[in-house]
Amino acid sequence: MAVELDEAPAAAPQPGASRRVGLLRPNPWRRPWLMEGFTWLYIVWSIVPIAIAVLFSFNKGASQSTWQGFSTKWYIGSSVNSVLHNTALHQAVVQTLVLAVLTTVICVPIGVGFAIGIDRWRSRAAMSLNFVMIFSFVIPELLLAVALFMLVTQALTFIGLGTEAEVAGLVVWNLSWPAVIVRARLVSIGRSYEEAATDLGASRLGAIRRVLLPMLMPAVFASAVLVFASTVDDFVIVEQLSSTASTQPMSVLIYANVHGGLSGPALNALATIMLLFSLVAAVLGLIAYRWMTRGERQSSVEALTNIAGM
Amino acid sequence: MALADREKTQDRRSRLLWIGLAAPGAIWLILLFVVPFYVMLAVAGGGINEFFQTVVPVWNPLHWSSWNFSAVWHDITGAGAFIGAPALRTLIYTAIATVLSLAIAYPVAYFVARYAGRRKGLFLVLLVAPFWVSYMMRMLAWIDLLQQGGLFNSALSDLGLPGNTDWLGGRSLTVILGLVYGYIPYLILTLYAFLDRIDQRLLEAAQDLGLSRWRTFWHVTIPLSKPAIIAGTFITVLPMLGDYYTNQLLSGAAGTTMIGNVIEGQLDAPGQTGQGAVLSLMLLVVLLVPMLYYVASTARASRENS
Questions:
Q1: How confident is the model at residue B245, as a pLDDT?
Q2: What are the residue ranges in chain B where pLDDT is below 70?
Q3: How far apart are CA B97 and CA B37, in angstroms?
Q4: CB of B191 within 8 A of CB of B109?
Q5: Residue B38: closest CA among chain A residues belongs to which residue?
Q6: In this structure, are residues A116 and B26 in contact, taking their beta carbons and an 8 Å threshold?
Q7: Do residue A10 and residue B117 have CB atoms under 8 angstroms apart?
Q8: ipTM of the prediction
Q9: What residues of chain A lie within 8 A of the CB of B184, using their CB?
Q10: Is there a contact between B73 and A4 (Cβ–Cβ < 8 Å)?
């Protein structure tokens, strides 16, 4: 995925080639205006609706189509229907944060350990476990959620529906982020640094802690950001595994209230807060990732694609 | 001799270390990914408490009954069958949405990977942005726009077109476009990641050898991006097949239900949890082949990289 930003664009015409193509064919290096226009159309289509939804969360009135002036009443002003004062709404914000923090704190360390262990412990068992992990990445979320629902209601009934079940499910659903990203980084680092450390007298664990982990930090951090953001955005698992209203995070509350119930700009405000959580995580992640890999001559494009889990 | 012995104990020690490191994640995966599907089997093969209408899972495979299976079979083929229509609809919606997504995503990913030049960073930020916006938020945005009296309808009536269409009143078109809108960012990012790795020199060579743009694209780029198209198709098709919320949010009508809605509905209905388990297992079996293919190709790619 090596992309050099400073590289001259591939569109640089070469004199020999353009002469050969001559007037018979259109210049093959001309700018593809049509495709560029299409790309911009797509970008507008993908972003403008969201921008409008964010804008209308600051509307003074309850309309979603007529701008009635700027106000923060749906966030803090209204004593009945604002995120701050409505119990259901702010409970959902708190629940989302609790789930995201707990899931990230549990998921990232065990995922990193899993990645290192599986990569080094070459055996049939390790391969099967890796297979199960990738499988958990591609399975439709609904099927996993149904299976987990049956687990906590029929077998491990001491867990039951609620926050514990939600965290357990979110951890297993997101485990593949740290596992895959850290493993890719492990492969690119290779084993030589670690072997050098053990040759110089470090213990295995010491070599992991003092040599390998610092080199893995960017990948660990990128996966933490991804786990956090995808937990904030998660819907299917938390919907199936939440019990009462108090364990419903923002996504479930929005889903339940879109048709009737608490509707209007208060929901947009809630969704905007959700957006803010993910965006803050993403921006912080990108800055920290750039800082951690500052010695690696990595382009910003590469940092961006890494932080998006590609 | 002593050295060899010491190396052997060291080997054993470090193997224990690797197992120890992998253990928490492995246990979590087994307990909360493998075991749940066994519970699903036990529920599907189990019975039902007639009085309370609750599920009675049967843990011993030898005692599994086919009661739930025949109930589902009856729902598919018997009188009053109701599963066929949502299943068929799931296939049609997913197929149209996937083709549409590919038609939109491929040119976008191709342009950014090949022609964006110095502005690649900007384009990538804009393409990645929806990835960070929650699915719920993106659907909510369209509900706001499409509702009666919403901006879309008022824009239509400003143009002199009929502006009172109930877009959210159970239209397949809205649901399909919702699916496209919901899952296309993943497709674009997957396609981009692959297309970006295509060696530009191959394309330049093709053009230097006299192929036109279109023929270069058709004979070089498309064959080279086949793995990208396959991977991207999986990435969008698999979640679409388990989707039950997009249609619920954008239509809510019985005429647009998909297989996910049937499963989800049976989960909470008294006495039908077992049939929900059977349907989930059926969906899993159908998806097993594409999933295994995807897993195998991912494993192959990572082996080639290492």
A1: 92
A2: 1-3, 50, 299, 301-306
A3: 29
A4: yes
A5: A147
A6: no
A7: yes
A8: 0.88
A9: 46
A10: no
Helix/strand/coil for A70: strand
* Residue B303 amino acid letter: R
Whether B130 sits inside 8 A of A310 (CB atoms) is no
**Which of B36, B134, B252 is nearest residue A278 as measured by Cβ atoms?**
B134
**Contact: A255, B136; criterion CB under 8 Å:** yes
Show the CA angle centred on residue A154, arms to residues A153 and A158, nearest 5°.
60
Contact B138 A131 (CB under 8 A): no
Residue A116, min C-alpha distance to chain B (Å): 7
**CA pair distance A173, A103, nearest whole angstrom:** 10
What does the alpha-carbon distance between residue A208 and residue A115 come to, in Å, rounded to a whole number? Answer: 13
Nearest to B118 by CA among A2, A298, A6: A6
Q: How confident is the model at residue A20 (pLDDT cuts 50, 70, 90)?
A: very low
Contacts with B36 from chain A: Cβ below 8 Å: 144, 147-148, 150-151
Distance CA A191, CA B157 (A): 66
Q: How far apart are CA A175 and CA B28, in angstroms?
A: 9
Type of residue numbered B169: G
Which of A130, A141, A237 lies closest to B283 in space, CA to CA? A141
Q: Which chain A residue is nearest to residue B282, measuring alpha carbons? A: A143
User: Which chain A residues are closer than 8 Å to B30 by Cβ?
Assistant: 132
* Chain B, nearest residue to A111 by Cα: B25
Q: What digits encode the pLDDT tens for the residues A81-106?
A: 777 878 888 888 999 999 999 999 99
DSSP A277-308: HHHHHHHHHHHHHHHHTGGGT--HHHHHHHHT
pLDDT digits (tens, 9 = 90+) for B155-203: 888 888 877 778 888 889 999 999 999 999 989 988 998 888 888 788 8
* Contacts with B, A 11-40, CB within 8 Å: 11, 17, 20, 25-26, 28, 31-32, 35-36, 38-39
The residue of chain A with its CA nearest to that of B209 is A17
Q: Which of residues 129-168 of A touch B (CB under 8 A)?
A: 129-136, 138-144, 146-151, 154-155, 168
The span from the CA of A27 to the CA of A22, in Å, is 8
| Residue of A19, A41, A35, A52 whose CA lies nearest to A265 | A52
Using CA atoms, how far apart are residues A194 and A204, in angstroms rounded to an integer? 8
